């Protein structure tokens, strides 16, 4: 069971709140990655408030629960906010993000014991392998819950992703639902300028995956895609949601380019962003 | 005691960028590769003015190291650019086999080394890279201390034939070495002569060693301060000559106490002239998020730590 199981209207409000958290968190320390975080907010809110079966009483082994792994660890703000809003830890702790002695490290880490995190990430390209390992352990344990993993589209330029992709199909790891945040942006520019990714859907299909596509900034298309992805598990193929998002989604001046990949808003920009991110019942940390 | 002053703080990575740009003009064999961090590595100027010699490889560091090795065959001098973690640990075997063992003339240029990378945290703050790189046969390991020295080192390594690991950082630090310095690989730089204790520092810790020298002088302690910008090959003669005189040493580095400058010095002393040594280094730990200044305090890498270490070293003299 998902502990929240919210309606679409509620999900939208939570997403706005998470986006407010993201811009406030990165603003407070003048560092961090708002662009990908804002783009993937609807994905995270869907997972934790609707899609995944889990308990907020965090256990590393997660037996009998769905697991989530974030491979593109730089979008930690959206994960931290979602975890706090979902009840893993106090939202007040979001104020410690990237500060010294915090459990909310710049990139997700396990050393400080933050609830919800099972492996460190930040160095790109490693999360899919970890998720596949965890999925195989679920099979060995006769645990039929699922493993979710998110990667960036720039991230798939790492060769390890393709080693993992090949492995997943060969070993028929059909209890994993991987997602690529296809926002078309990375640090030095658009993915087209930096490294042409070509037809990612066709590439993963050629590697033996079952690939769905969805608009990641619309709950109306994202939730049905998750439903279909779940139905596609257990059929001998790893499942991928190729998710189109807009980097910086929800804050107009952060959208449309790679520029806000890893830059924090200044005071004035924060105020503009917050005006655009209205919530019904504002409850900023 | 020599006084060191600076008019400006600058980041060492910008010294790399400036040196690389000069090489673009002066050495047509120099090519540059970058793994989606052109701005962070300050390679934009080279990219803009020498686009046909700049290669964007995307987020694919292992591929970058192999490409660089291949480009040397036929005479190019490749400079690779990414963060220090992704320049070393991520690609250790590619460097080991295709570059070091194969004796390829690749310059591995690594930014954001150490704790002073700051808020990104431990995944990016490598504190083991000097150790990894100095263990590789054929590898030269250089960690300059400021903007001017990083620029000079960048230019100098193009003239040297063989694989080099050039380590630099993210924050702005005092730029105090001369702009017209001649950078000699493997040659220690004597910053201040002294008689009571030798302080050997590398990278960002060199300026802190200078500050510590002043604080020690106020206490009546005469410290000899040496900038070791080349950790491998180490300037054994300089180390031994100094410690023979002072009879004790402090090593200071933004790196784990295992495998770095301290161990390099200890090895020379242990086999030639055993003497009390104190390490200013991180203590077998990963880093964490925080401002560079906070982290240097928390992990014991300040001028105060150097002073305390010097006093301990002196008290241990026979
Ligand atoms: C192995 C590795 N190389 C380089 C980096 C530096 N880096 C952090 S994020 C990033 C771009 C990632 O692009 P993408 O996955 O598309 O994420 P987005 O920018 O869309 O959030 C890079 C190059 C890294 N973290 N890890
Ligand atoms: Mg992207």
UniProtKB/TrEMBL annotation, chain A:
Q: Which UniProt keywords apply?
A: Thiamine pyrophosphate
InterPro entries for this protein: THDP-binding (IPR029061), Transketolase_N (IPR005474)
Can the keyword DNA-binding be found in this entry's annotation?
Answer: no
- Which cofactors, if any, are listed as required? thiamine diphosphate
Identify the residues that the record assigns to the Transketolase N-terminal domain, covering every copy: 13-278
Q: Which domain of life is it from?
A: Bacteria
> Does Repeat count among this protein's keywords?
no
List, alphabetically, the Pfam families matched: Transketolase_N
Q: PANTHER family from the entry?
A: TRANSKETOLASE N-TERMINAL SECTION-RELATED (PTHR47514)
Family under the similarity heading: Belongs to the transketolase family.
Q: Per its record, how is this protein called by name?
A: Transketolase
Automatic annotation (TrEMBL), chain B:
Pfam families assigned to the protein according to its UniProt record, in alphabetical order: Transket_pyr, Transketolase_C
Q: Which InterPro entries match?
A: PDH/Transketolase, THDP-binding, Transketo_C/PFOR_II, Transketolase-like_Pyr-bd, Transketolase_C
Q: Domain (Transketolase-like pyrimidine-binding): give its ranges.
A: 10-175
Full protein name: Transketolase family protein
Organism annotation? Pontibacter aydingkolensis
């Amino acid at each position: 069971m998902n502990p929240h199981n919210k309606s679409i209207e509620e999900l939208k409000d939570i997403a706005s709140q998470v986006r407010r958290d993201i811009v406030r968190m990165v603003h407070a320390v003048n560092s961090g990655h708002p662009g990908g975080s804002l783009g993937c907010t609807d994905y995270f809110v869907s997972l934790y408030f609707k899609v995944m079966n889990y308990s907020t009483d965090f256990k590393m082994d997660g037996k009998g629960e769905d697991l989530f792994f974030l491979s593109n660890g730089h979008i930690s703000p959206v994960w931290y906010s979602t975890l706090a809003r979902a009840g893993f830890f106090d939202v007040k702790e979001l104020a410690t993000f990237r500060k010294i002695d915090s459990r909310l490290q710049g990139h997700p880490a396990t050393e400080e014991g933050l609830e919800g995190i099972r492996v460190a990430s930040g160095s790109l390209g490693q999360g899919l392998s970890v998720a596949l390992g965890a999925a195989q352990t679920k099979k060995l344990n006769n645990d039929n819950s699922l493993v979710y993993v998110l990667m960036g589209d720039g991230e798939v330029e790492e060769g390890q992703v393709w080693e993992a992709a090949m492995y997943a199909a060969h070993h028929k790891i059909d209890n994993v639902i991987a997602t690529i945040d296809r926002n078309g942006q990375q640090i030095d520019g658009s993915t087209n300028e930096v490294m042409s990714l070509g037809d990612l859907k066709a590439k993963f299909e050629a590697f033996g995956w079952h690939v769905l596509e969805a608009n990641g900034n619309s709950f109306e298309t994202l939730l049905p895609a998750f439903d279909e992805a779940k139905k596609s598990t257990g059929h001998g193929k790893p499942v991928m949601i190729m998710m189109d998002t807009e980097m910086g989604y929800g804050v107009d001046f952060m959208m449309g380019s790679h520029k806000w990949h890893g830059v924090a808003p200044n005071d004035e920009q924060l105020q503009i962003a917050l005006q655009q991110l209205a919530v019904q019942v504002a409850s900023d940390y | 005691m020599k006084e060191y002053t600076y008019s400006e703080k600058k980041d060492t990575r910008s010294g790399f960028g400036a040196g690389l740009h000069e090489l673009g003009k002066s050495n047509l064999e120099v090519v540059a590769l970058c793994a989606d961090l052109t701005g962070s590595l300050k390679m934009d100027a080279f990219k803009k003015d020498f686009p046909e010699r700049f290669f964007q490889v995307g987020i694919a560091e292992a591929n970058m190291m192999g490409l660089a090795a291949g480009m040397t065959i036929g005479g190019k001098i490749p400079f690779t650019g990414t963060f220090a973690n992704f320049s070393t640990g991520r690609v250790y075997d590619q460097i080991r086999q295709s570059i070091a063992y194969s004796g390829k003339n690749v310059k591995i240029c690594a930014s954001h080394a150490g704790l002073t990378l700051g808020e990104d945290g431990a995944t990016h703050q490598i504190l083991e890279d000097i150790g990894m790189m100095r263990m590789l046969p054929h590898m030269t390991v250089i960690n300059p201390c400021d903007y001017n020295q990083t620029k000079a080192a960048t230019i100098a390594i193009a003239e040297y034939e063989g694989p080099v690991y050039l380590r630099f950082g993210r924050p702005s630090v005092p730029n105090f070495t001369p702009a017209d310095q001649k950078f000699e690989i493997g040659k220690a730089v004597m910053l201040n002569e002294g008689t009571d204790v030798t302080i050997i520092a590398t990278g960002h810790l060199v300026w802190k060693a200078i500050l510590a020298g002043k604080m020690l002088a106020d206490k009546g302690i005469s410290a000899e301060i040496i900038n070791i910008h080349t950790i491998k090959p180490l300037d054994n003669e300089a180390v031994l000559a100094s410690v023979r005189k002072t009879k004790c040493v402090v090593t200071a580095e933004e790196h784990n106490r295992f495998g770095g400058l301290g161990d390099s010095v200890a090895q020379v002393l242990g086999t030639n002239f055993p003497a009390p040594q104190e390490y200013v280094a991180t203590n077998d730990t990963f880093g964490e998020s925080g401002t560079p200044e906070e982290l240097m305090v928390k992990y014991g890498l300040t001028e105060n730590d150097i002073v305390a270490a010097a006093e301990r070293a002196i008290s241990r003299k026979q």
